[in-house]
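<instruction>
Derive structure tokens from the sequence
<data>
Labelled lines for chain and fold:
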Amino acid sequence: MDSLNLSTEGSSWSDDEPEVNRKGTGVFIPNLEIFETDSNDGESEEPVSIDILPNDIHERILSFLPLFAAFRASCVCQKWKQIVHSQRFTLKDANLLSDKTWYFMFTSSVEPVGYLYDSGLRKWYNFELPFMVHHTWNIASSCGLVSFMDEERTKSIYVCNPITREYHILSTPPSSGFPVYSALALSVHPSKSKYTISVVRSMQDSDDFVLWKVSIHVYDSKEKTWLSSVTGAMQGWRPGDVSVICDNILYILVFYTRQIDIHNPVQNLHGLVAYNLDNTEVSVGMLRDESVILAPCALTCGRLMNVQGKLVLVGGIGRLSRPGVIKGIGIWVLDGSEWTEITRMPHKFVQGFGELDDVFASSGGGDLIYIQSYGGTALLIYDMETRQWFWSQKCSMHKKFPLEIFSGFCFEPRLQFM
């Protein structure tokens, strides 16, 4: 493998580092040197144990470390382990890092390995998840937790803290048939020490693909059970694999299923429907056209995300002559029932992807939105706070064969696990 150095001030990252530094979570401190100083009187001094320091001094020392380094430091001794995993320390961690999401990039591999991007330090870490993840799985994240759903093989949902590597395995909710499409969403409620998972399933109910059966399944971690599912039908629209929870409202991206008007090929084929998770006993009923909030334009690769507590839509903007081919990427925020455009990706960044496929991945949280082409490792970031676009540092992951697919997701790094 070719050597690729990622340099930051005072450190260097390279594919040629010894293997011992690339195991486990793969975090190491490069260029660390130990110097032996000569004593003036030639007498050796008795070592002084750091254990003599009070706990609050230990905590203060550890608090200056980056989160990843603090977690690694917890393996040094029992005292540091107790401090790093204490409620007092993890609450400080939650307050410090609430707006700094990290991005995990992975590819089709026989091992659960990839690269983790620290957006605060702008550094990539070699990183390993505690289980294998496939790029076809549904993935959702919220407040330090990430959920992965494998509907095809294991029929399982994994709820994981990637930093601490702790995870639970849930069975997917029961279904009366095999769903054609499934959408996963996750919402963590730190004040209630609980999380909510929603799974939206849709099954074809007519030969012309116009009528679809829809079911919404909600898991409550406090009750440790799936609540009674809510069912309904959609005519002319169907859910896909995109949904998100924002302020306890479940938003679902839906697709137009009626015959396309040949005289208006650029018509909008995407929309949004909302369901209040506080009313889980209310049936969806038959969805009507007037309840659909149309997307702002002809879209490809539409993704919904909760950024700064707002519902954000990211998608490719279709060309007038060929709606399936994008001319750029836009970001919108939902204001009531109207979409407000925040920005469009500048053309120089579109060019920076090289061959930007019409298929790309995007995810967001905190202040940051990440956009990545499935065909490569270039990672573009948009900061909602500063309203700036910028590239991440270059990732060391290499393409092993022409059709290799790269994927990824972002999450907020945390030390606590519910």
Observations:
- The CA atoms of residues 211 and 235 lie 5 Å apart.
- The first helix runs from residue 55 to 63.
- The radius of gyration is 24 Å.
- The chain has a mean pLDDT of 79.
